[in-house]
Design brief:
- This is PSP1 C-terminal domain-containing protein.
- It comes from bioreactor metagenome.
- By secondary structure, the chain is an alpha+beta fold.
- The protein folds into two domains: 64 residues, no CATH class; 48 residues, SH3 type barrels (Roll), CATH 2.30.30.
- 27% of the residues lie in helices and 22% in strands.
- The protein contains five helices and five strands; from the N terminus they run H-H-H-H-E-E-E-E-E-H.
- It has a five-stranded antiparallel sheet with strand order 4-3-2-1-5, with no helix packed on it.
- Strand 1 and strand 2 form a beta hairpin.
- The protein is elongated and about 60 Å long.
């Protein structure tokens, strides 16, 4: 690759600092909560973007410190509990629906150090559905 700018506005990874190409998978895009639209996660070479691999280790390490979506958590320093509805590995935070004293629930954002898992997989959260054609197109980007 001679040069150009990536979607982030910076010089393309493959032309500026990458010495060799490492495998990039769809799983990396899913972990980073990116749209699985092939047009948005593929580079000008029509392969999955190299930056997915570049950031992968950070997401992998941070996910280890977070509860899974659907886990019941205790809010540290309180007697409140909640169900995790979303996680943000980049900021090491999780959103949990916390039940208030009056029985209503409110979604709040917590740092990973503010919550502790007390029960795993209490609620099953529906995963994003991908059509067959879109999955086929994404698989072609991996090769």
């Amino acid at each position: 690759m001679i040069g150009g700018l990536g979607p982030c506005g910076r010089p393309m990874c493959c032309s500026s600092f990458l010495g060799e190409f490492y495998p990039v998978s769809i799983k990396m895009a899913k972990e980073q909560k990116l749209s699985l639209n092939p047009a948005k996660i593929s580079g000008i070479c029509s392969r999955l973007m190299c930056c997915l691999n570049y950031e992968h280790h950070v997401y992998e390490e941070n996910i280890k410190e977070l509860p899974d979506v659907g886990d019941r958590v205790l809010i540290v320093g309180t007697k409140k509990t909640g169900i995790v509805v979303d996680i943000n590995p980049l900021f090491k935070s999780a959103k949990a629906k916390v039940t208030k004293d009056d029985g209503t629930g409110e979604v709040e954002d917590f740092n990973s150090s503010e919550i502790k898992v007390i029960e795993e997989g209490v609620v099953k959260i529906k995963q994003e559905e991908i059509g067959f054609e879109e999955l086929k197109e994404l698989k072609e980007l991996e090769d």
